[in-house]
Amino acid sequence: MSIVLRPGAPSDSTVCGRICFEAFRAIDDEHNFPWDFPSVEVATQVLMMLLSNRGFYSLVAEKDGKVVGSNFLDERGPIAGLGPITVDPTSQNATIGRRLMQAALDRASDRRAAGVRLLQSTFHNRSLCLYAKL
Q1: Which end of the chain is more exposed for a tag (fewer CB within 10 A), N or C?
Q2: Distance (Å, rounded) from C-alpha 94 to C-alpha 11?
Q3: Nearest CA-CA partner of 71 in 102, 36, 30
Q4: Parallel, antiparallel, or unpaired for β 3-7 and 56-63?
Q5: Distance between CA atoms of residues 92 and 36, nearest Å
Q6: Considering only CA atoms, which of 81, 96, 90, 103 is closest in space to residue 127?
Q7: Which residues contact 28 (CB under 8 A, 6 or more apart)?
Q8: How many other C-beta atoms lie within 10 A of the C-beta of residue 125?
Q9: What sign for the dihedral angle of Cα 10, 11, 16, 18?
Q10: Which of 34, 40, 35 is nearest to 21 (CA)?
């Protein structure tokens, strides 16, 4: 399995939007919470905004040439905002999320951000454990 991280582009919005919707829907359904994004179209619009805004650093993960996840870093202020980070549910638990998160944290460090802010769904224990480790 070959994982490559690369900068995101507006042309990634359709696939990244679908992954974002499916990843959040899966964890929300697992815990009986309302969906974070009401549809694939809404998730795609949000990610298009992030991918098109120069104030956001975007990363896309590819596995064997196929997009399987993304992460974003809001660099518009002294405290960087991290996320949303999503990995295709069929590709989770393969260190892709960890690599996306570490790359964004490295970027914040390289740019000497005063801090990094991350919002976390408290019921998502796997991601909470990853974030605590990093």
Answers
A1: N
A2: 25
A3: 102
A4: antiparallel
A5: 19
A6: 96
A7: 34, 35, 36
A8: 11
A9: positive
A10: 40
State both tokens at 49: 């905004």
- Residue 45 CB neighbour total at 10 angstroms: 13
Q: Give which of 64, 63, 92, 68 is closest to 12, Cα–Cα.
A: 68
The rounded distance, in Å, linking the Cα atoms of 22 and 97 is 15
Which position has the token pair 């990363």? 59
Token duo for residue 27 = 């964890």
User: Is residue 81 a contact partner of residue 55, using CB atoms and an 8 Å limit?
Assistant: no
The SS3 of residue 45 is: helix
The number of CA neighbours under 13 Å toward the Cβ of 98 is: 10
User: Two tokens at 15?
Assistant: 């696939």
Measured over the CA atoms of residue 3, residue 130, residue 12 and residue 80, the dihedral's sign is: negative
Tokens 């870093």 sit at which residue? 73
| pLDDT 10s digits, 110-122 | 999 999 998 777 6
